[in-house]
Specification:
The structure holds 2 protein chains of 2 kinds. Chain A is α+β, with helices and mostly antiparallel strands. Chain A contains 9 helices and 16 strands. In chain A, strands 6, 7, 8, 9, 10, 14, 15 and 16 form an 8-stranded mixed β-sheet that branches. Chain A has a 5-stranded mixed β-sheet with strand order 1-2-3-4-5. A 3-stranded antiparallel β-sheet of chain A has the order 11-13-12.
């Protein structure tokens, strides 16, 4: 069963109690919330995701709920809870769904050490993965959303999971997080993609999420071999330009952007070296998505 | 022109280092510190020489052996460059001076 098979009422009841066991890639999250923003967010963005047996195992038990504080009567807030504890400060109630997303990211990046986890978007074409590691603001999510809307398969927007045995990317297709001007950029570029309502004044500015394509969610068990490592950088007005990047620099970039490189020691080093061995590495500047997508379609054709 | 230091250097044991080379650039992981570093071509070649030597080498020894690793023949000014590389390696825990 997938989320879309539930009526709004059924989803609301399941999220309220006993919790929705939602599969995202290799992870099962037990999500509890009575908040309308969370219900709507899950209904829109996770519509294609599998609901696991209510008695089955869940990797993460999370809850988004108002904190017990008199403040809730003045300026309502929400708190992300993990195993009953609140690892983060509360946020305004309007940010409830974004907080669930950030919390689920934290669950994976802090606990899933069966993978080497790189802070990177990743997409796939013809079995090959394109990794886009980058700092916030580099334009990686915008580029990821643009590519996904033009036929590339979404592997992950934020957390690229590398299988320790094979070095392949294990998909974690969850909503793509768009910030500030990128929200309207993607709405104009990809009118067929579903983008949720933006929330404003978050620590990242205005944030909205793009629903992962159905095909990407359905193919979440299909890993992909890394083929390209690309460091994106958005610059308003810049022409699309793909410049070779030395493999040593690309290695250091991946290591710097890995959440748990140190956890894996020598195995982490060997795994990243394997990823670099199999990949062409580039820096990429772009100012217009249309041109950017054309560049990557071209390198995919030549692969 | 600088004259080479008489100090002799050895790398940490080979099993304490894992490294890779791509197109003349090196990445090395120091198993003792857990740190990973990118090395420029000269630094990478110096480390290779020390690992292959299996014993302590002076700056002049290293410069002589670099002929196998670098296209250009060793020049006196390389002594200073190699000295600087060894100082940095010492700071990173990749080499140690031989006890006098």
């Amino acid at each position: 069963m997938i989320v879309a098979h539930l009526s709004h009422q059924e989803l609301m009841h399941r999220l309220a109690r006993p919790g929705l066991r939602l599969r995202t890639g290799p992870v099962v999250n037990r999500i509890q919330s009575r908040l309308a923003k969370v219900v709507h967010g899950v209904e829109l963005h996770y519509a294609d995701c599998t609901i696991e047996d209510s008695e089955g195992f869940a990797d993460f038990h999370v809850r988004v709920a108002p904190p017990r504080s008199p403040r809730r009567w003045i300026a309502p807030q929400v708190q992300f809870q993990f195993d009953g504890a609140g690892p983060f400060l509360p946020l305004p109630a309007s940010q409830a769904f974004a907080m669930l997303e950030w919390g689920l990211n934290w669950c994976v990046s802090s606990h899933c050490h069966q993978y080497l986890i790189v802070h990177a978007a990743s997409v796939e074409r013809s079995g090959f993965a394109l990794l886009l590691p980058g700092h916030p603001g580099s334009g990686k999510s915008t580029l990821c959303a643009g590519l996904v809307s033009r036929g590339w398969r979404l592997l992950s927007d934020e957390l690229t999971l590398l299988d320790l045995a094979t070095g392949h990317v294990v998909p974690l297709p969850r909503p793509v997080s768009l910030k500030n001007a990128s929200i309207d950029v993607i709405r104009r570029f990809s009118p067929g993609m579903e983008v949720g309502p933006p929330v404003h004044d978050t620590v990242k500015g205005s944030v909205a999420h793009m629903r992962p394509p159905t095909d990407s969610v359905r193919r979440a068990t299909e890993a992909a071999r890394p083929r390209w490592i690309v460091l994106p950088r958005y610059e308003a007005g810049a022409a699309a330009s793909l410049t070779p990047l030395s493999r040593a620099r690309a290695f250091m970039h991946l290591a710097d952007h890995a959440f748990n490189y140190d956890v894996h020691g020598r195995q982490g080093f060997e795994l990243l070296a394997q990823v670099i061995d199999s990949s062409d590495c580039f820096e990429f500047h772009y100012g217009a998505l249309e041109h950017a997508v054309a560049v990557f379609d071209d390198i995919a054709r030549r692969a | 022109m600088s004259s080479p230091s008489a100090l002799r250097w050895r790398s940490v044991p080979p099993d304490a280092i894992v490294w890779r080379e791509w197109d003349g650039e090196f990445v090395v992981r120091n198993e003792r510190s857990g740190s990973t570093h990118q090395l420029a071509p000269l630094a990478g070649s110096v480390l290779q020489v020390l690992l292959e030597a299996g014993g302590a080498l002076s700056v002049a020894d290293i410069a002589a052996r670099l002929g196998d690793h670098l296209a250009a023949a060793p020049e006196p000014d390389q002594y200073a460059a190699i000295d600087a590389v060894l100082s940095e390696f010492k700071r990173l825990g990749l080499v140690e001076p031989e006890a006098q």
